[in-house]
Amino acid sequence: MKILFSFLPKEEQRLSLINRFPQVDFIFHKDLNENELKTASVFVTYGEDLKPSHIEGAKKLKWVMVASAGLEKMPLQEIAQRNILLTNVRGIHKTPMAESILAHILSIKKSLPLIAENQKKAEWSKRVPSSELYGSTALIIGPGAIGGEVGRLLQAFGVHTIGCNRSGKTASYMDEMVSFKSLKEVLPKADIVISILPSTEETRGLLTYEHFKSMKESAIFMNYGRGDLLKEQDLKQALEDNCIAYAVLDVFAKEPLESDHPFWSMPNVIISPHISSHSSQYVVRALEIFSRNLTSYLNEESNFENVIDVSRGY
């Protein structure tokens, strides 16, 4: 059985897979090798290189493993038509992303950017605003694995957490839960609004100017899900109108963000260039999930982790 990678794990990681699964023919490339894909049974990818034409030509393909959580660039319809197993690495992002989110919140609350600027100017100034997380309220839109970890950390700081998802069903480390339908009702309560939503038909354009207008003027808005959650012009206008105090953005409608985009020069916008999930442990964790699933695959079992409902895209 041939397994094709379109990215190159470290040498010790490649050797570990080869030694653990000697019955498998592993092919590693830095990018997608179309000829190798035609005879591969399993394809391991970051999810941005696979096109509908590739699915058509990959007659032996039975399983696609995406070493990412996002699937919006995948040819889902063609994968569904071929009944190809699709899995991802949902859950491995929760530690680095939750730490990144908390770091930015604390940085704003404790005015770390201003402190850094004062240091550059050798300016001894105690006129630095500082506020506490304790006693505040955070609305987490998309309280899955990542959102739950964010909620856990925030609760440790004494923050009241409200989760918001499609159904309103209970999620881990949320003090309250609401559905998308009740979003406007809870936004005025939140000091921090964090979106960690995937890109689906239900989430694209979910937030509008009216949502930002209903938030506290002191609120921090953070988007760590997907850029198509909102129209960037709506967010820009909301910031200019002082509807909210800050926006921390890790994702954008078009990436990389163009150098002349107004967000770069706005004093109340913090740009994180889609790096919140970066970690030295990222590939390690991804390959751990892949190895467990590969063991099940080789044993002809069906207990796979992170199987994607292709019709929903998550």
UniProtKB/TrEMBL annotation:
Record-annotated D-isomer specific 2-hydroxyacid dehydrogenase NAD-binding domain positions: 102-276
SUPFAM superfamilies in the record: Formate/glycerate dehydrogenase catalytic domain-like, NAD(P)-binding Rossmann-fold domains
Domain D-isomer specific 2-hydroxyacid dehydrogenase catalytic: 23-302
Keyword NAD among record annotations: yes
Transmembrane segments: none
Keywords: NAD, Oxidoreductase
Family that this chain belongs to: Belongs to the D-isomer specific 2-hydroxyacid dehydrogenase family.
Xref: PANTHER family: 2-HACID_DH_C DOMAIN-CONTAINING PROTEIN, D-ISOMER SPECIFIC 2-HYDROXYACID DEHYDROGENASE NAD-BINDING DOMAIN-CONTAINING PROTEIN
Record's protein name: D-2-hydroxyacid dehydrogenase
